[in-house]
Amino acid sequence: MLRIPLRSGDFSESLAKALLKLKLCFSLIMSTPSNSPRKVFVTTALPYANGVFHIGHIMEYIQADIWVRYQRMRLRGEDRLYFVCADDVHGAPIMLKAEAEGMAPQELVNKIAATRPKCLNGFLISFDHWHSTESPENTELSRDVYRKLKARQLIYGKTIEQFFDPVKNIFLPDRYIKGECPRCHAPDQYGDACEQCSAVYNATELIDPRSTLSGASPVLKSSEHFFFRLSDPQCLEFLREWVKGDRLQGEVTNKIREWLGHDGEESKIVDWDISRDAPYFGIEIPDAPGKYFYVWLDAPIGYLASLKARLAQENIALEDFLGGADIEQYHFIGKDIIYFHTLFWPAMMKFSGAPYHIPDNIFVHGFIMFSGEKMSKSRGTGINPELYLDFGLNAEWLRYYFAAKLNDRVEDLDFNPDDFIARVNSDLVGKYVNIASRAAPFVQKYFDHHLGKNFADLPIVQETRGEATTLAELLEKRQFSAAVRRIMELADCMNAYWDQKAPWTLAKRFDTLSDAERADLHDTCSAALEVFRLLTLYLKPILPRLAGEAEQFLNIASLAWSDADVPLPMGHRVNIYQHLMTRVDGKQIDQLLEAQAKQQIQKSEPEAKSETASAMINIDDFAKVDLRIGKILNAESIEGSDKLLKITVDIGEDKPRTVFAGIKKSYSPEHLIGRLTPIIVNLAPRKMKFGVSEGMILAASSTDSGIYLLQPDAGAAIGMKIK
Fold first, then answer.
1. Would you say residue 481 has pLDDT above 70?
2. 15, 206, 222, 630: which could form a disulfide with 649 (CB 3.0–4.6 Å)?
3. According to DSSP H, which parts of 32-164 are helical?
4. β-bridge mates for residue 155, sequence order
5. pLDDT tens for each residue of 498-544
6. For position 14, what pLDDT does the model report?
7. Beta 676-680 vs 627-637: how paired, if at all?
8. 684 against 29, higher pLDDT
9. If you ran DSSP here, which 8-state letter would residue 36 be given?
10. Are 179 and 191 in contact, with CB atoms under 8 Å apart?
11. Is the omega angle on the peptide bond into residue 355 within 30 degrees of 0, that is, cis?
12. Three-class SS of residue 222?
């Protein structure tokens, strides 16, 4: 806990603090260009345009937005910062989903693009521009990069064999092929890796492969593809040098060195296939009819395309902005796309030459979990960002909660509803906002909205102001959770100081106070509002809307970071205080989670029900149902229900599932324990009166003969798939 020296402190402690602040200040000065204007270019990973935003997107955007807003608070007159992103719209999945929905790929892209502003605006993400990889700028830049790499003899053609779907008439990406693993012989494995034994292989090695699009057996066809010589010695030498220093987090650097080979190890890097055959929704390769850039070539170039479009609004050429050594280029990404951003992307930029720029830093974050489990659309776990906004939950609650959990390491972030409620209510309302709500009425009632004379020199104010350098360092390094902890320590100290001074006791006899007592009361209340202003400044990158409302109450201009050094003037007039933030009501979160569960159920139901008892389906329809063998670990009756049993089933996952089955009249709970049974595991969770059901146990039944559970033959094991 940070200690506020209300009396004369120990000299050695004060000296140590002063030296620490000096060190941090020097670090900040050295990390920022001295006199020349800054040119800063920041991006987040492009979301794929085959679906609406999920909470992982929003977490990444909030992380980047907090950092960008902090940077903007430090900009000087000639400095320029651009924060851009775009929809990633190319590739086979876009094309196939559009076909399934009966529309052209561009129609699907436009449909998804129309959903973006709701969440971006709703969660206060301050992008300067949002673009699309299906843009003239991206086509131009992708072809330019290709030509320059080709001129450096880093592009070559090679004939390869690929699986081709004779029904869909399309070359199949690996993820659209399934078959028996060639290593462990597990069935139903994808064409690039086995989920059972983790083996990596070529799709052509699969045993009895089939297309997941049509169910047909694919055929091998030869085709010429273009490759980027990523394994070229000059590329490897550059990448090994590039990962040195502090461009990347330590965890990321270690992983890249495994791929690159170090300490005499051989490199695992192979040349990169950058082309795809028609039909393909993408950018056609120059002088190669029927050949298209693989989506992962043009997607990161979409960063530059978005920047180019934004600069054009100010009549600035991309070449001029990127030119010179003073450009700063930063990317925020998730840990699942490290390979593309730390190998392909910097190598492409390096060997394409001017004006392209190698990233200065790539900031990698982990995944977002929900109450300790990985979020899953199929199981309905997690937070739906659109529903969050629809239910009227405050976006800044979520921004603050993420900030309180995020740091500069590649760690997964866990969203826990109970922790979310407690943290927001305790910190934001109970500590930070509480300072203004306690002090403002005194200043308004007794001092006509004006501040005192000597509050700025009080130790509580000086100590709070003195933390600006430390907090700047933490925000600069993306150590948001540490910054939040320190800010709340300062808020705790202010609230403790307020309780110690107990200004309400003086206010009760205000008319009889001496001049000295009135001045003391005035300065105590004024100091609280000055500390509130400083805390608002520190929290502004995280809570921009709340900070704006606080600025309006305090009657001040928009806060910049340099304002930490300039206290409010004596006699400054504040406006009428209006409550700044309400508490989270647990019922709001319950309603949100219940609505999400209902939405999942609705999505899982067919859009139209056939009147025929046995409507025909094809193999693709059946393949959507995930049937597995489960073992009943426990079964119990439910008080208040004459039909349901609560059943705990092990299907080979980390955690057993709970299923509610209407079989109470046919089976006693004790007779079910230990039994193997088929279960549907990808049925959307259903929230019932007695809890959430996470699957369905299969049974045969008729109106007159009862219910009969199915049982697998001897040899069946937990987790086996039923096909």
1. yes
2. 630
3. 55-74, 92-100, 105-113, 116-122, 136-151
4. 228
5. 999 999 999 999 999 999 999 999 999 999 999 999 999 999 999 99
6. 46
7. antiparallel
8. 684
9. S
10. yes
11. yes
12. strand
